[in-house]
């Protein structure tokens, strides 16, 4: 019995030695964010700068915006960086997030095969173009993952009052990069953010069909999870990340990021506020 108790005590000590100390835990920041920030390469570019500056470590959960905000709502992360303004505002209004901060913006574009079967290339009206896709029975690949991109696409179809029917309409249930790869394979159109498209353009052969519509503006915001709801969250670390990404240094870093030589994210925080 004594040997068993000694063994149990050793196992407890071993487990305790593998847990992060309170100081170490405070340096770990859990962030949920979208496929677009990862697929474009932005996270791999930005986060090492922040980590070097602060000594903190950011553990990232990459998923669709809907899921990213759900993780915040349930206190499973400390901070969320997403691009679905109504859902972000709702998270804050319901008390799960402390405040939404503008970070940056990019834009959505409609892309498709070079032969342009729907005849929409060169257009600047996304709704008119999507009506032509329906009328021409052209194929369209949807993210289908409750991401910010998916929500915007569904809002366009809702405004039209229709959408392509199967088999022309293909729900990928995947991230933006995978959806673009599928669109190339199916010679289909897709709605995408410009940053991810720039990263995947060469490997897919897809071309920009429609761009420049104000409806396709795509703002990103960052929100710390409310410690009043979830006392265990790393609110200090979340605030530290928010302060950096919205600072002069963070905003300059966003502006300097390039994909294939092209600026694809534009800083929008009120620097110097």
From TrEMBL:
Residues 1-25 form the signal peptide. The keyword Signal applies. Residues 25-249 form the PBP domain. Keywords: Signal. This is Solute-binding protein. It comes from Noviherbaspirillum galbum.
């Amino acid at each position: 019995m004594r040997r068993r108790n000694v063994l149990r005590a050793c196992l407890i000590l071993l487990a305790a030695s593998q847990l992060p100390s309170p100081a170490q835990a405070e340096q770990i920041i859990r962030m949920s964010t979208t496929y677009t920030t990862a697929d474009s390469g932005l996270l791999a570019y930005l986060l090492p700068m922040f980590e070097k500056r602060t000594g903190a470590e950011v553990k990232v959960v990459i998923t669709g915006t809907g899921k990213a905000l759900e993780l915040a709502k349930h206190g499973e992360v400390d901070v969320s960086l997403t691009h679905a303004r109504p859902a972000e505002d709702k998270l804050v209004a319901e008390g799960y997030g402390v405040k939404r901060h503008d970070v940056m913006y990019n834009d959505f574009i409609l892309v498709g095969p070079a032969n342009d079967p729907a005849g929409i290339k060169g257009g600047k009206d996304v709704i008119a173009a999507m009506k032509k896709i329906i009328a021409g029975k052209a194929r369209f690949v949807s993210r289908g993952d409750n991401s910010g991109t998916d929500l915007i696409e569904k809002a366009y179809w809702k405004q039209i009052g229709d959408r392509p029917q199967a088999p022309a309409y293909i729900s990928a249930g995947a991230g933006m990069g995978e959806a673009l790869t599928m669109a190339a394979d199916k010679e289909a159109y897709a709605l995408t953010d410009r940053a991810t498209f720039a990263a995947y353009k060469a490997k897919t052969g897809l071309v920009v069909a429609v761009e420049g519509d104000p409806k396709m503006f795509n703002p990103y915001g960052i929100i710390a999870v409310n410690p009043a709801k979830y006392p265990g969250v790393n609110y200090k670390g979340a605030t530290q990340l928010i302060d950096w990404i919205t600072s002069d240094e963070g905003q300059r870093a966003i502006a300097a990021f390039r994909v294939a030589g092209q600026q694809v994210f534009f800083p929008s925080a009120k620097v110097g506020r």
